[in-house]
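Handover notes (outgoing to incoming on-call)

Open items:
1. Membrane protein: sequence verified, structure written out, both below. Nothing else pending on this one.
2. Nothing else urgent.
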Amino acid sequence: MREDRPANRKRRRTKVPLWRWRNNPIRRRDDVLEAWLVLAIWVLIAVGGTAAGVVTAHAADQVFAQQRADRIPVSAVLLDDVPRTATSEMGRDLASAKVRWTNSDGSMRNGMTLVTTGKKAGSTVRVWIDGQGKLSTQPPTPTKAAVEAGLFGTSAALALSGVVFGIGSAGRWWLDRRRIQQWDREWTLVGPKWGHKTS
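Membrane protein structure tokens:
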């Protein structure tokens, strides 16, 4: 008759937490190296990933703020008709067209920019120019810039974390290979000394 275990008896735990950090007879030098490697990986991911994200987001935000400061909207005159049959760009009803605008110094400039389709020559359109009076794109609004800076920062943090994790995984794989080779060498030495063979 089988004897049942008491219901309140706890199962014995076989896994020892942080065993690589404790002195024990089965711990090897490679185990200690792996413990330090894992610690370094997580510290670099936590600290380095956060720092990379914050620095990248801050740099992107500064670039967007500089664009808002440098670029100004001006009125321009459309020099050609832009029919509605024109091919839409970027999924919107936009097409490239030639425009003329006046810079702050009074000089007239011509250039190509995207305008809404269906406009006739002579129509007034708003374009953005940079500090040198050249056509530019509209700078992002502060809200859109904050979102984009956050996305850039998150991407930088994830990229750095991925690289660190990949390097750490390669290091752990190398340590595993070394341990297996050491075990093979030791088994070759110890195995024949045993008084019997298994079949």
